[in-house]
Structures are given as structure tokens and as C-alpha cells.
User: Fold S-methyl-5-thioribose-1-phosphate isomerase from Paractinoplanes rhizophilus.
Amino acid sequence: MRTIDWVDGAVEIIDQTVLPKEVRVLRLHTVPELVAAIQSLAVRGAPALGVAGAFGVALAARVHADDPQALTAAVARVETARPTAVNLARGVRRAAALLPRGPEAVLAEACAIRDEEVAASRAMASRGADLIVELCGNRSRLLTHCNTGGLAAVTLGTALGVVFELHQRGLLGGVIASETRPLLQGARLTSWELSQRGIAHRVAVDSAGPFLMARGEVDAVILGADRICANGDVINKIGTYAHALGAHRAGIPFVVVAPESTVDTHTPSGDRVPIEDRGAAEITPWSDAVNPAFDVTPHDLVTAIVTDRRVIRP
Ligand code: MRU
Assistant:
């Protein structure tokens, strides 16, 4: 099943807030419903957010066909629902460019974005698997962070798609899923996707990653991105930078897998990217808190970036 799709006049998503306990499908009919789903992370992950943004414009175009002011406001709400993954605003803008041609043209563009992400996942899986074999040989033991599978894209995924491909080729030596505090995308979502495919894996607390690398239990780190800047800096889920430092110290490859739709050549470097802070409630009821949802991994810690079209070695 697709994580996100347009079905009978509404956006259908798998609700990622209730996995792995329950596989629940939500039907979203309005822009406020879609924005709430984006902000609660019911739909999440950079490629899926791009598709969600485009479908959001399709919803807005239907509801506000006769009210240009309301339409503009609705499109802006979708575009700014979350600030960090470049795919969201990019998906919104691409679909919104079709507004003068009417709601059906907008929907067609949104479906094209969905289909492009499906194709991109396939291309990245194959290219990424080739690269891991080149860098680490056969039977590599990989550590991944956050969730970069079909749940974060439309199907298959980015970094986790590479893991699936290596498993299919019989070349996977093991997977450690970093739990990904505080919302546990690794422990809940990545672990669920790996189990669905019958892939043996272990979950580790985020802070164990660099130590496991130092102890020689990891051959490469492979993960996704929410934005890749012009200089190769990688913005991804908080905890990524620590894994990059650990990989550098242990002398193992640090590989990022992301579609071209995540590459943002308009942003020169990571310090220019708005980093979402999700507030204290997700961490602690007892105290004020700082809760950045993403971090910046400087390009010199990145061995390679695999996209659907190329391998970039920053
Ligand atoms: O806050 P999230 O869960 O949307 O963050 C997602 C990530 O950081 C992923 O690693 C990234 O989007 C890559 S998804 C293929």
C-alpha cells in the first residue's frame, strides 16, 4: 500500500502516529485536516511531505475554486506547515503553479510528483546498494537513523530502500535501527517496516550509535535527508550529526540517500536552514526544554550522497 495517495476525492494516508500498534488509514478532505496531519507527523518524511504538500494544493483548489483570497491563504498554510524539509514547500509551489489551469490540472501535477517519488525510490535503492557493496563489500552491517522507508516516501523509501535492496540481493550482514528520540521513528516505524519484510534487525538507543561504531559492529551508516544544501551540508533528523561524528572517528562510510527533490541548491549551507523546534511537551512535562527536530551534518563528514540520478561525493 502507498503511504500517501489520492483516493476518491480525498488524500489517504497511513497514520504514522499509531504505528506499530495499529495500521490505520486516515482520509483527509480539507486543508486544515491535512495541515494537522503534517504537524502531528501522521504523515512525515521529506518525500512524503512533498507529495502531501502538492495534494494539499489540490484540496485547496477544489474547496476554494471561487475565492482567490481563501485559496492563497490555504496554500500558504500548507506550505508553512513544517519549515525544514525542502520537499514540502517545493511540492506546494510546483502544484500551485498549475492553479491558473484549474483544479484538475493541479491534481494531475500532484499525482505526477507522487509518481516521480515512486520512481526515484527505485533508482536510489539500486544505485545505493551498488555503492554500499563498492564501499563495504558483501554482507555489510548497517546503522540507520529515523525512518526512511516507504512510510517516509510513497513506497520503498530512500536509505531503507537501499537496505531492502541489499537484503533482496542477499548482501545484508545486519541492521541497527537507531531509535530516534523523542518520537521513535526508528524504534516504531523502521523496525515495523523491517519486520514486515522479514529482515532481522536490532534497535539501539541513539546514544549507542557512535560506541557501536567504535566497537567495530557497524560497517557503514546510511540515512536520509530533509534538505541537502548547495555545499553538501545535510539536514536530517536530530541525532544524525552524532552518528556522522561517530562514523568519522571509526573510519567508516557515512552515506546519505535522498531524491533530487531534497537537493536545495538555493540554500548555500546548513546554517541557513530553518530548524523546526517542536517544543517541550514531546520531551518532558516537568521542565522547559529545547527540542530541535533536525540537525546539520557538515559536508566534510559525508562520504557520499546517493540521489535518483547520481552519486555526489561532497
Ligand atoms: O520529523 P520527520 O519524521 O518528518 O523527520 C524525517 C527525517 O528526518 C527523515 O530522515 C528524512 O525525512 C528522510 S525521509 C526519506
Q: What stands out?
A: The mean pLDDT is 98. The CA atoms of residues 256 and 305 lie 5 Å apart. Residues 41, 44-47, 85, 146, 148, 152-153, 157-158, 185, 224-226, 236-237, 293 surround MRU (CB under 6 Å).
